[in-house]
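Figure S4 source data
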Amino acid sequence: MKHDWEYSRDISLPFELHLADGRKLVCEKVLRLLPGRRLVCKAVSDEGEVLLKLFLGEDGRKEAAEDASAIRAMMAANIATPALRGEVGVKDRPHWVLLFDFIPEASSFRQAWTAATGEQRQALLEKLLRLVAAQHQAGLRQRDFHLNNFLVDAHGHLYAIDGGDFLVGDAPVNRAAAIANLGFLFGHLPRRELHRRADVLQPYLEARGWSGEPGLLSRVSQAADAFRHRRARRISRKAYRNCSEFLVRQWRGLRICQRRDLPVEVLDAWLESCSLAPGEGEPILKPGNSQTVWLTHLGGDEAVVKRYNLKNLLHALRRAFSRSRASRSWENAHRLRAYHIATPRPLAMIEERWGPLRRRAWLITDPARGEGANRYIPRHSDEDSMKRLVDTVTAFGENGLVHGDMKATNFIMSDDSVEVIDLDSMHRPFTAPARRARIYRDRQRFLQNWKGELRETFRRLLNA
């Protein structure tokens, strides 16, 4: 009989795992799950807490051996990594298990970076660059660099994990491969992090005993940009298929793409109760012929719904054969994650479908935090607030993105955030000349929001 931990995305906890050497582990918390392939969890044995990595299926032993090989190489090179305690099979199953020291109160590098600010981020980045340099010197490099392959403990110490994502070589990583790997690293971070300081790569160079060279920063930047664009495409396409983060399903003539952390029963109860229209007493944020926006509740949480209406028969016929605006907004909201440009978290996208033909569509997101820049800036016209807004505008251009409608009302500002909304026109032109022309048009449209001294200050900040 198969257990749910062998194939399911919904695993009953806790569960017992009996190992081939007679030990019994109790798995208490799932940390990472690829159904039918891999399971990482916090477990308890007679020896205390451990991190358990379970490799499922016939290839599990081979994958476990590759993972363990990279971890042993790091341990031999004195690279900080949770110690490998054991490699063992599962009783009466073809699966294989690696056991590691469990690091309490740890977060991924990505989580630590998101929570940090200013000097804390600089310190984290320097630690990461030195750790990556040590890996490269030991002949280790990541196949597809991932910030979740590093942990930060409660004391700020950094550890490398997930040996299965590493290639193990017999010699130190050469300059060309190192530049590509550093490009992957910086491709996961906001573009400006690589250009904030001229000596940003110095911790890595010092750890490798290398001197700088002309054009090194430019080569890493090119590799980072290329990776960032590939990652953005991958993330946006992932939002349309069933995976660990998203669920795609049909419901009574509707096609639904939703986040998995939005419970299906919560969304279905909302669909049943509201018929995809504003309920009694729900605030209408934007009435209109082409779209209606209102505030609602999903379970106990507030959410914003944008319904893209059909104005007339001709409009309906045109929309039937083209992508819905909700679909484009859903994709672009996820694409912005790769560029570190804030937008309200998209929760679900719903389309009326009749075979391949589309009718109305809905986008559901978290509420934006704050108010439109047209109201916020006149009351907070200090240069720091204005620069925060300009940083968001320039982030579009730096990444080759065109918003398409840079009205002040499409930037929602609070004292600690700037979020961009109305993403259905956002795109990245294919050619560099087209990008330059349309980014220039975006910035001119942004400047039209302001008058007098405000406009001149914004113009100066944009040109800085």
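Figure S5 source data
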Amino acid sequence: MKHHLIRYKTKPDRADENERLVKAVFEELRGKSPEGVRYMTWRSGDGTFVHLVEIETDEHADVIPGLAAFEAFQNGIRDRSIEPPHRDVMTVVGHYRMLDEQPE
């Protein structure tokens, strides 16, 4: 299982647009209900967005990038952002009721 954390800050006048595009990705995910991925996004008051993506196996890696709504979101992300997206591969150290699998 892989976990990716993506973080960026949008321009103040583009944060609502970015949120709308992110919500469209979730709408398409709910409609298609793909297996093998989990996805969550947070938005802070200063226009910072944080995305947490969990991918069960490499065969699921293209699920989110393959969505039409994700392609629309990606189109212009650098124009909407003050800070470009930064992606880190993360390792779960622990959690409490945050992920579907049982805590370690």
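DSSP finds three helices and four strands in the chain. The chain has a mean pLDDT of 92.
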